[in-house]
Specification:
- By secondary structure, the chain is mainly α.
- Helices cover 67% and strands 2% of the residues.
- The protein contains 31 helices and two strands.
- The protein has a two-stranded antiparallel sheet.
- A hairpin with a 2-residue loop joins strand 1 and strand 2.
Length: 698
């Protein structure tokens, strides 16, 4: 059975090899050194696109037919069926206006790859290397349509090879090898201005790095790189962009089909992303690049654009490798944590590109912040990773962290004053990035500040030569987190809202910022439930260390979970149907349910604080007086507005809202209309109703 499967595998590769080589290789005929292939005419481009489309259709058609083949036949019968079908599928394609080329497939004749004489391999690898190098070589054409069609063929080949797991893995490795080839070539091109003979050195170092932990030998990868360079007339970084998109499409297909190969693809891709060269050919170093193109502004702009497209495609791929659904899969922690070292490189690359379009820059920031948010749960076993995130946020996203939370006034160039269009879009984009950055910052600070209170967390940011944790490491991380949040709150909130008449205004502005995005709203609310732990951590520290942490102490008290819950309900206008919509939402339902459960538990534990907000105000006033003694010229009032609801009215409004929510959930549950089991939430609401009844009776 294994021998027969191997025979089918070889026949399939030979068939693909003949189809791709006979149809597409004529477009990659070598030209004299130093010459550049002229751009295709419109008719030539049309012929290439027709050929690519028919090759793609033929491969997909073969896959559909092979699923219907009977595996019980002997080898000769299967070979006969194979040859007969090939003759039936023979197709004639237009190559130019004056000639035709037949798409030939492997029939009964012996197969021979069209590789150069010195670059043949054993075990069918010749066919795979030939197929991949030809299709990747087509990406050198300037036409975006040709690149897209060639990418579709790579995708079709991937789907076709998935039934042969080992061969498919080798194919993915070759696609990554092609990316490394382009990267190494661009490095050697830059280095060649200062030192000759760098090309072979770059290629050999690239081969040595990427051949580790892969199924393909370094010799085979080196030969493949040479063949690819022969077939790519001009090696541009935009080839990397196209290949990143192909890999992203393959990953999407694996996820949609729930393929077992998905984990192999993720592990393989993370390994190669770690091995990518980030200097200077890939990561823009202004000095070297400018020195090469300082006399050609058009070339400089084009080089910038190429860097932008490559980094954008890579970011898209990396974010897809770490999906939101993977956050709860702790079994993959060891895999995803390997991407931690990639984040500083991507952020540094973003920082160095100062003149790129603003829309592209904001896209980079969005993707990098999203990647940080998705990786953070896998990084929490090591405090040094969290500290690294905080430093990156402070160094590269400081403007977002210190952006005022209360509304934006947009001023656009080349736009009429008062225009309702682009200004609104720009404002929303900025606020979205601010929400991401602020959530990351607060979650990292709170994690570090509270890590000493949770015995499950381990700190490994400081270790001795034997790998043992250094004494006082936890205290160092705690203090770092507390200092960061104290300085941020001092600058962003306390120093900018001097005319605030109530501490509620700060919480109100904060929640209003996140109300525009439901999916982040309940994530940040869940994080703020740990705010009291900050005050506990400060109380457990030595008094000499707490004088600089008044900002953190104020943050902990101002964002008291019970008070924040009151403010949230008031923002929702005490409409219980809005809470129902949140609970049944596919995107935020789970997080909303978790938040309500924890809040109702806190309310039952701190009932007096829930019905009487004066305790909260007293704590704020006491700490504010202490702060005013420290900063004599700063005044911050916390008295309530005269027109605001009294504590009793706040409690009554919240009571009506939550009891209405309970009745609605019971009704939906009885009619079997609620998407999940609401019994835990109903139990908590029933306890809340009991407390309300006891309060009324007293």
């Amino acid at each position: 059975m294994a021998q027969r499967r191997r025979w089918r595998e070889r026949q399939h590769l030979a068939r693909l090899c003949d189809l791709v080589a006979d149809s597409l290789l004529p477009y990659l005929e070598p030209e004299p050194p130093g010459t550049r292939r002229p751009e295709l005419t419109r008719e030539e481009e049309r012929c290439v696109l027709l050929t690519l489309a028919r090759v793609n259709k033929a491969i997909r058609g073969w896959d559909d037919d092979e699923e219907e083949e009977v595996d019980d036949g002997d080898a000769s019968d299967e070979h006969l069926q194979f040859s007969t079908k090939l003759l039936r599928d023979t197709t004639y394609l237009s190559v130019s206006s004056s000639c035709l080329l037949e798409i030939a497939s492997c029939s009964g004749e012996a197969h021979s790859c069209s590789l150069p004489p010195d670059h043949h391999f054993d075990d069918g690898f010749s066919c795979l290397a030939n197929i991949t190098s030809i299709v990747v070589g087509l990406h050198h054409f300037c036409s975006d349509y040709i690149k897209h069609s060639a990418g579709n063929i790579l995708m079709a080949i991937s789907n076709s090879l998935m039934k042969f797991e080992a061969v498919w893995i080798q194919f993915v490795e070759l696609v990554w090898a092609a990316i490394h080839t382009v990267s190494a070539h661009n490095h050697s091109t830059i280095d060649a201005t200062n030192c000759s003979g760098k090309v072979s050195t770059c290629c050999s170092s690239a081969v040595e790095s990427i051949s580790q932990s892969t199924m393909t030998s370094s010799t085979s990868i080196a030969s493949f790189m040479v063949v690819l360079k022969l077939r790519c007339v001009s090696i541009s970084r935009l080839i990397m962009t196209s290949l990143f998109r192909v890999l992203h499409t393959i990953l999407k297909f694996l996820k949609l089909s729930d393929s077992e190969l998905k984990d192999d693809f993720i592990c393989l891709s993370i390994h190669h992303i770690q091995k990518l060269r980030w200097h200077p050919g890939y990561q823009l170093i202004a000095g070297k690049v400018v020195s090469l193109v300082k006399d050609d502004r058009h070339s400089f702009s084009r080089d910038y654009a190429q860097f932008g497209f490559v980094s954008g495609s890579l970011l898209q791929l990396v974010c897809s490798l770490v999906e939101q659904s993977d956050l709860e899969d702790m079994g993959r922690r060891d895999i995803f944590v390997k991407l931690v070292d990639v984040i500083p490189r991507l952020v540094t690359f973003l920082q160095e590109q100062q003149d790129i379009p603003k829309g592209l820059s904001q896209y980079y920031k969005h993707k990098i912040l999203m990647l940080m948010m998705r990786l953070k749960p896998h990084m929490q076993q090591n405090c040094s990773h969290i500290i690294c995130l905080l430093k990156l946020l402070q160094d590269h996203f400081q403007n977002l962290l210190h952006e005022p939370m209360s509304g934006h006034i947009s001023k656009l160039e080349n736009c009429l004053e008062g225009s309702p269009f682009l200004g609104e879009i720009q404002d929303k984009t900025t606020r979205h990035l601010q929400r991401q950055a602020m959530y990351l910052f607060l979650s990292c600070c709170i994690f570090l500040a509270c890590s000493g209170n949770d015995s499950r967390q381990k700190c490994s940011c400081k270790k001795d030569e034997f790998g043992h944790e250094v004494q006082g490491c936890i205290d160092h991380c705690n203090y770092f987190g507390l200092t960061e949040i104290s300085d941020w709150f001092q600058r962003c909130c306390l120093d900018k809202i001097l005319d605030s008449k109530s501490s509620t205004d700060i919480v109100l502005c904060f929640l209003q910022l996140y109300m525009e995005e439901d999916d982040i709203l309940f994530i940040i609310l869940l994080q703020l439930l740990d705010a009291p732990l900050i005050s506990l951590a400060i109380d457990n520290m030595e008094s000499k260390c707490t004088s600089k942490l008044i900002g953190a102490k104020l943050f902990s008290i101002i964002f008291d979970p019970v008070h924040t819950f009151h403010v949230l309900l008031s923002l929702l206008h005490y409409d219980h149907l809005v809470l129902v919509d949140y609970l049944i939402s596919k995107d935020v339902g789970v997080h909303c349910a978790q938040y309500l459960l924890r809040c109702l538990r806190l309310v039952s534990q701190c009932w007096n604080a829930f019905i009487d907000d004066s305790v909260y105000e007293a704590q704020i006033q006491k700490l504010t007086c202490k702060r005013q003694r420290t900063l004599k010229n700063t005044k911050l009032g916390f008295s309530r507005d005269k027109g605001s609801n009294s504590e009793k009215q706040l409690f009554l409004s919240a009571k009506v809202c939550l009891l209405s929510l309970k009745r609605t959930l019971e009704d939906l549950h009885q009619k079997d209309l609620f998407p999940y089991n609401p019994k835990p939430l109903l139990k908590s609401l029933a306890r809340f109703e009991e407390l309300c009844q006891q309060c009324c009776s007293n």
